[in-house]
Structure formats: structure tokens, C-alpha cells
Amino acid sequence: MSTFSKVVICGVGLIGGSCARALRRAGAVKTLTGLGRSAASLERARALGVIDEAATDWAQALDGADLVLLAAPVGATDALVTELAQHLPPHTVVTDAGSTKSDVAAVFAARLSPEQRARVVPAHPIAGAEKSGVEAASASLFDGRRVVLTPLPESSPEAIERVTRAFALCGAHVSSMSPKAHDETFAAVSHLPHLLAFALVDEFASRANASELFRYAGSGFRDFTRIASSHPEMWRDIALANRGNLLEELDRYSAALSRLRSLLEAQDATALEALFQHAKDARSAWLDTLAAG
Amino acid sequence: MSTFSKVVICGVGLIGGSCARALRRAGAVKTLTGLGRSAASLERARALGVIDEAATDWAQALDGADLVLLAAPVGATDALVTELAQHLPPHTVVTDAGSTKSDVAAVFAARLSPEQRARVVPAHPIAGAEKSGVEAASASLFDGRRVVLTPLPESSPEAIERVTRAFALCGAHVSSMSPKAHDETFAAVSHLPHLLAFALVDEFASRANASELFRYAGSGFRDFTRIASSHPEMWRDIALANRGNLLEELDRYSAALSRLRSLLEAQDATALEALFQHAKDARSAWLDTLAAG
After folding, report:
1. Torsion angle of C-alpha atoms A247, A250, A251, A253, degrees rounded to 10
2. What gap in Å lies between CA A230 and CA A23, rounded to an integer?
3. Which of chain A's residues have a Cβ under 8 Å away from the Cβ of B126?
4. Do B23 and B166 touch, CB atoms closer than 8 A?
5. CB B36 within 8 A of CB B56
6. What is the overall mean pLDDT for chain A?
7. SS3 A169
8. What is the mean pLDDT of the segment spanning A207-235?
9. What is the distance between the alpha carbons of residues A108 and A10, in angstroms, rounded to a whole number?
10. Sequence-separated (6 or more) residues with CB below 8 Å from residue B10
11. Continuous H helices in A36-76
12. Chain B residues with CB-CB distance to A236 below 8 A
């Protein structure tokens, strides 16, 4: 007997498709329904065995659904939630996969009734990948990765339990924090580094001697800038959605760089070495906690 | 018949030891002599088969040497070159493995005669590794990597040819530039990213909620900060030695960050996406050139 009789994936790309594949791997769902604007890409997802059926009609798709995962680009969230408000059956639980959470919480607050919001539990699956599209979807994308739930004030314990169970069945470690704490934390550990990497590569690429510079860039540069190969439109939306926190993080980092610059200008060998050592030790301790699982 | 009858490695750590192992793999040298201050670590290098004999006496070590590689920490360069000046035989060629080159060129200019400098060809093997010590030395460390020669004004064609041959036998791609161009280029593509990574990890680790932040740091953060696990003392020396160029790079990068901050504050979605796309495209083109070899 499957845990879920029907799960609806709204936006069957890398994240939605991987979630579908992982739930299927777990034998956790009877019917996987894909919902989306493009009939052609839904048909591709069906042909690949990612979903069982394609739907373009909300009422039909949601009929009998235990769970809906909104996994379309965040720019579409408002339109999707507006549709959802008109068609959400009384026993269907909703989650999403957006990288920022305060903005998503605001959309749910604006578009859904308090009764509907009781069945909504926003989530952020931390599974970055440079790839995109349903072809890249993998049943193991979430294995051992974190999924952070950011419940709304109205989210019911039953809804939280159902969403937790779904992501746990996908192989993820599930934890919770408030949308505000989520956006502050990820502004620092994820959004800031992405902006720093994009800024560096853009700046180098804008120079007259760019090809000469890139010729001598090595493996350190390659890893440092890996995240500058991330999806430009997605990161534009994340940066704008988390603008306030990200501006603060940019200011903190600029101040830190400024202090480092002063140490270098003053040739303060002791302080420079101490700063480098502090960073190395902190990173090493962090890697130890990762290895310890 | 070996290409070299005797090669002297001064400082048998990761770089010196890997060079020794690579020359041995190539069957290119009859005798590998290690020179260094610590008899115990030279003995370890000999026991590991990295060198054939350990020397602590310069005159004895250099007697009959075709090539000397200075691979001790850069802080020792001045003292080593002072010794070298007193003992350099007339047919021995000298190279080094320092990550900055203008400072090294200045030491050679100060300590050696013009005739001696004709036989000196400074080099920078681009083979970063978080490991250090002779135990980590590997015959394949330089395979497919770049070695940049920065000849002195006096370096003779014969000396350049000999050093080129040695690094090519180690498996590296050898090219040349001036010490000034080298230090400008590497300030941008290597030294700046190291400082940016060290600064970020140091700043996070200094916060009250550091452990909470690190808990949510993912694979993007891990790769972005890999170079913050580099050797603190070595990077202190590199930063100080290349201070002028690095201060300029920090200023350029701070200005770029400032522009990015303005776009974000103004919510300029079009310009943000264009910047991210420009970076992604440039990195993608660079990866293509790497793949093409």
C-alpha cells in the first residue's frame, strides 16, 4: 500500500522531476500527476517515466490529491497560488521548492484563506545543481541533503507531518525554521557566495586581457567560481526576493574585505596569518561535522 | 642515458618531492640529491625513495649538479640564494618554485653576479594542493599542469632550455612571461580568490551564530571556500610579496561588488540577469578551452 495515493508535481523540471522519481523509488505513491503550462514538456516527463499522467487542468489534477509540490520557477508562484486558491480540495496538502521563503509566505498569505493556509507548508530542498530540466531529474538528488521546512503560522501539525514524510521518503534530512530565519541564513551561506562568484567572473570577463587571465586560471579558480555557472534567471529572482538580507550581507562582506585590505596595506604579517588560520580551522571543523553526518 | 646526471632539490616537501618523483618516473636523472636544514626530514625523503642522497653541505650537494630546484618556503629564499652565491659551480642551472616572481627576481639580482644570473631561470609550477610535506609528493602532480617560467634579463637560452626540459619531463606545459606580468596575472586569478575565500570563512566563523550558519552551508559553499583551506603561512607570504598588485585587485573587486550592490538596491532585474549571464557564459567558454587542452 502506497503512502500517498496521488501526488501532483506542478512544474516537472530538475527539482519536481527528482522528487517524483525519488517518491517512486520509495514505492510511496500510487499516481504521480504532472501539471504545467507546456503540454510538450509534460509529455516528455511522462515518456521518461517521471510522471504517470499529464494534466493541464487544475480541477482535474487536484481531484483526490494528497500532496501538491509547487516546483515551477518562482516568478510563476503568484499565478500558481491564485489558481490553487480556486481549486484546492479540503484534504490536499501543499508544499513548494523555492529558494527564498518570506516572499512565498507572503504570497500564500495574500492568496489563500487561513483555512487553506493550514494545509500549506513551504519548503526549501537544498539541492543545487548546475543542470536543469526534467532530463536531469534523478531519484537520488535529495539523498542525504537537507530540506528546510518553513511552516506558516497556520500550518497544521498534520500538514507538517505529511510534508516531512514526503521529503524524508525522498532521502532528505528534514528540519524547520521560520521563513525569516531561513532567508537570513541562506542570504549568508548561499546567496552571498553566488553573488561573489558571479561578480568575480563578470569582472574578469570584462577586462581587455580576459583571455590571458583565464589562460592562467587553475583548479582553485575553477572550484571558487563553480556557482557562477548557476542559472542566471533563477539567481536574479533569488537575489531580488531576498534583497534586504543580501544587501546586509554584501555590506558585512565588504567591511570584512576592507579590514583585510588594511592588514595587507599595513603589512601586518601576524594578523594576516591569524585570519587565514582562523578561516582554515573553521572550515576544517565544518568539514568534520559534515563527515560525521 | 639520463638527461641529467645530478639534480639537487633544496627543500624536499610537496613540490620539491613531486618534482623529484616525476623526474625519476621519466628516467631523466641519475642522482637526486636532497638538501635541507632538517636531517630527519631529508632522511624520511630518502627512505621514501624520493631522493637518492641527503646533503646538508652546499658545496658537496652542488658538486657536479646540472640543476638546482629551490623549493623551500619563500621566507627562506634570501638565505638560500646567499648560500648559493658562494657555492654555485660554473655549469649548474638554478630554478625555483615560488608563487610570486618579482620578489624572487629581486633576490637573485641582489645576491648573485650577472654571470651567475645567466644560469638562473625562476619558475612557478601551478600545482596547488591542500596537502603539504614529502609524504604527499606525487610523480603525477605536474601532469598536464602549467609551469610558468619568468626568465631574468640575464637568463641564457641554454639555461632556459634546461629548465624547460626539466619541467616538461615532469609532465607540465611550460610557458614564459615576465616576473611583472606573472605577478599581475596571478594576483587576479589566484591570489585574489584566495583572499576572498579566507575573508568569507573568517567573517562567518566570527559571528555569534557561526555554527547555525555552517549547518546550512551546502556543496556550493564547500567548493567556493575550498581554497580557504590553503596553507596560512604560505598565503601570508604570497599576499605580502604581491601586495601592490593584490591591493589593486581588491580595489577593483570591491568596486565591482559595489556596482552589483547598486543594481540589487535599484531592483534592476534586467542588469542583474545580464551580469549573471555574462559570468556564466564566460565561465562556460573558459571550461571549453580547458577541455580542449
Report:
1. 160
2. 26
3. 216, 218
4. yes
5. yes
6. 95
7. helix
8. 94
9. 16
10. B16, B35, B36, B61, B68, B69, B70, B71, B72, B80
11. 39-47, 58-62
12. 269, 272-273, 276
Residue B50 β-bridge partners: none
A145 reaches B (C-beta below 8 A): yes
Residues ≥6 apart with Cβ < 8 Å to A123: A95, A96, A97, A147, A148, A149, A150, A163, A167
Cα dihedral A175, A181, A187, A193 sign: negative
- Cα(A134)–Cα(A132) distance, rounded to whole angstroms? 7
Please identify which residue in the block is written with the cell numbers 516527463: A45
Cell of B19: 618534482
HEC per residue, A232-278: HHHHHHHHHHCHHHHHHHHHHHHHHHHHHHHHHHCCCHHHHHHHHHH
Asked if residue A136 lies in contact with residue A14, where contact means CB atoms within 8 angstroms, the answer is yes
Name the DSSP class of B172: P
| Touching A: B residues 124-143, CB under 8 Å | 126, 128
Indicate which of B283, B284, B287, B288 best probes the interface with A, i.e. most A CBs within 10 Å of its own CB: B283
Touching check for B216 and chain A: CB below 8 Å? Answer: yes
Smallest CA-to-CA distance from B276 within A15, A76, A99, A203 is with A203
Nearest-CA residue of chain A relative to B271?
Answer: A236
DSSP state of A49: T
Written as nine digits, the cell of B146 is: 602549467
* Set of cell numbers at residue B99: 608563487
The C-alpha atoms of residue B174 and residue B129 are separated, in whole angstroms, by 19
Spatial separation of the C-alpha atoms in residues A29 and A2, rounded to whole Å: 5
Mutate to test the interface with A, among B195, B268, B276, B288 (most CBs of A within 10 A): B276
ipTM over 0.95: no
Task: Report the 10 Å Cβ neighbour count for B41.
Answer: 17
Residue B149's φ and ψ, nearest 5 degrees, are: -90, 140
The grid coordinates of residue B153 equal 634579463
A264 with B280: Cβ contact below 8 A: no
Q: Under the phi-then-psi rule, with left for phi > 0, alpha for psi from -120 to 50, and beta for the rest, what region is B262?
A: alpha
CB A105 within 8 A of CB A122: yes
Candidates B145, B194, B256; nearest CB to A203: B256
* The three grid cell numbers given for residue A129, joined into one nine-digit string: 545543481
Of the candidates B58, B103, B191, B181, the one whose C-alpha atom is nearest the C-alpha of residue A209 is B181
CA B37 from chain centre, in angstroms, equals 21
- Residue A35's nearest CA partner among A67, A1, A5 is A67
Of B218, B258, B260, the CB nearest to A190: B218
**pTM for the whole structure:** 0.92
- pLDDT single digits (tens) B4-54: 999 999 999 999 999 999 999 999 999 999 999 888 999 999 999 999 999
C-alpha cell at A194: 553566488
Q: Over the stretch A5-40, which tens digit does the pLDDT of each residue have?
A: 999 999 999 999 999 999 999 999 999 999 998 889
Give the C-alpha distances (Å, rounded to integers) separating B211 from A125, A188, A279: 20, 13, 14
